[in-house]
User: What shape does this take?
Amino acid sequence: MSQILDGNRVRDQIKAEARPQVERIIAHAGRAPGLAVVLVGHDPASEIYVRSKTKTADDLGIYSETITPPAAIDTAGLLAIIASLNARPEIDGILVQLPLPAHIDSQKILLAVAPEKDVDGFHPLNVGLLSTGRPGPRPCTPAGIIQLLRRYEIPMAGANAVVIGRSDIVGKPMAMLLLHENATVTVCHSRTRNLPAVCREADILVAAIGRPAMITAEYIRPGAVVIDVGQSRVTSRTEAERIFDPSRLPDFDLKGSLLVGDVHPGDMARVSSAYTPVPGGVGPLTIAMLMRNTIESAESRTGLYSNSGLC
Ligand code: NAP
Assistant: This one.
């Protein structure tokens, strides 16, 4: 039987650890850690993500505010908002919800966030800190995966880790964090030759592709640990029949869609030794790590501790 790596459980542990940290900051600095979320326009998925981020912040006693400029705002207007947030002492973390509208220069915006308030860890300076193994905020999704692997005592040192996907948000930082854990890391992408054979070398296989259930049994070495980062919605019944156990189809018919990862759920459960389900695996960790990055930024900015930020 393959072990389920329960992201909700690890999220709850991280949140439980965060509460006393918040209390220590309030006792020391006379204020709560502060998080500002910039949400441009009315993308429904982004609105849902932002709501769950601010709700988690509230739950932990972190001050949060959401700035909602209209979709028509230009790059200069958004830069002015970022500059004002950079200047506010009670704001420890600034998060710009992606994706931004196409007419906005996203790179310019991410570069404008003060690196010490960059709780997403996307600023090039923080990417450099990660790459050279120096303390700093780490991108939340891959940092959450490291927490999960550690807490389930999955050995990383010396393991062959294969990461599929090379995005700045997930794939590349994931590879770097696994490297810092002394794994032997291979990064794959859309031009990788013979992907199934490369993936079958993995003791730890991380799929961050964005293609529903693309990774089937032929990609998974029996006994491997599989981390499924993907989050896609399946809306075609034929696709649903390929992907899901027949017992899930009534649910699909009722809702008209189901959430799926990059890994075929049945194959993953059958072939791996441990895996993250979708939903309930990687997803819950990202927001928990965002809170942790905000707290560490507040600890550092209020002089309580310097940012340990090693993961
Ligand atoms: P992305 O920026 O679109 O990157 C996808 C990566 O997958 C690219 O590097 C791409 O290769 C590679 N790829 C695409 N098709 C491939 C193929 N057929 N074979 C091999 N590699 C292929 O996506 P992302 O932002 O990293 O996100 C990936 C997935 O994770 C999405 O489903 C997203 O929703 C999910 N996600 C989940 C969380 C969470 O909290 N659970 C957080 C972030 C993202 P090229 O570089 O060659 O194009």
